[in-house]
From TrEMBL:
Belongs to the purine/pyrimidine phosphoribosyltransferase family. PurR subfamily. Transmembrane segments: none annotated. One of its GO terms (biological process) is negative regulation of purine nucleobase metabolic process. The lineage of its organism: Bacteria, Bacillati, Bacillota, Bacilli, Bacillales. GO terms for molecular function: DNA binding. NCBIfam families: purR_Bsub. CDD domains: PRTases_typeI. The keyword Secreted does not apply. Residues 5-74 form the Bacterial purine repressor N-terminal domain. InterPro entries: PRTase-like, PRTase_dom, Pur/Pyrimidine_PRTase, PuR_N, PurR_Bsub, WH-like_DNA-bd_sf, WH_DNA-bd_sf. It comes from Anaerobacillus alkaliphilus. Keywords: DNA-binding, Transcription, Transcription regulation. It comes from the Bacteria. SUPFAM superfamilies: PRTase-like (SSF53271), Winged helix' DNA-binding domain (SSF46785). This is Pur operon repressor.
Amino acid sequence: MKKFRRSGRLVDLTNYLINNPHQLIPLTYFAERYDSAKSSISEDLGIIKEMFESQETGLLVTVAGASGGVKYIPTASVDEIEATLLDLCTKLKDPNRVLPGGYLYMMDIIGNPKLMNDIGRYFATLFANKKVDVIMTMATKGIPLAYAVASYMNVPVCIVRHEHRITEGSLVSINYVSGSTKRIQTMSLAKRSLQEGSNVLIIDDFMKAGGTIKGMINLVDEFQSNVVGTGVLVEADHVDERLVDKYISMTRLSEVNTKDKLITVELGNFFENLKQYREEK
């Protein structure tokens, strides 16, 4: 790569870090990339670190030693998260969202790349101190959010499905009880999607009683892997029995009055857990 002026180097260095989150990058790589001394690269990283932290857009973690380097961890400010989620609550309260059976129309929200990207960064902020190897979700509506989270944590996504796809090879399948309908259903995951001993973060768009998420937790057990966290965009609070105890929700749906088309939505338990998760090492 050609020799950069410092201003150009700072721009390219920042861009590289943002596009490679949670990856330990040796200083020698940047020194060779920009044909610059390590001391100059260290000074550049100091400037970027100060800006990231002052704007609360990320952290730069430096690891000393021969095998060390620098790692960018995406974050978001509490004010930004709160403003976005309050706006989301307002959108979800739109009475035109009410569908027969008390369901909500959410495809415009799930299909909004900017919003899903922001929510993905917020989940990545919360789980930044967790060792996550893969994001797991259920097809199909959870996929956009799962990929958004995965992009900020720099890990792959594995997709659990109800139907078998020949292109995915051999499967591991389990039966589970749907929490809302109480019906026995089947979910499957390709054997090649998840390595034994993986740390799995489950992400989904909506949770009612939690039967689907409970099924995914059991499926992870079949792979002799570990669930390190569960995050949902919307949780329904008006359920008789919750099958999942530990989860993080961005918003909480308290009531859907189909007769009057009244929807009650509030912030979920995200902020209750944010401080605790940030303090965990």
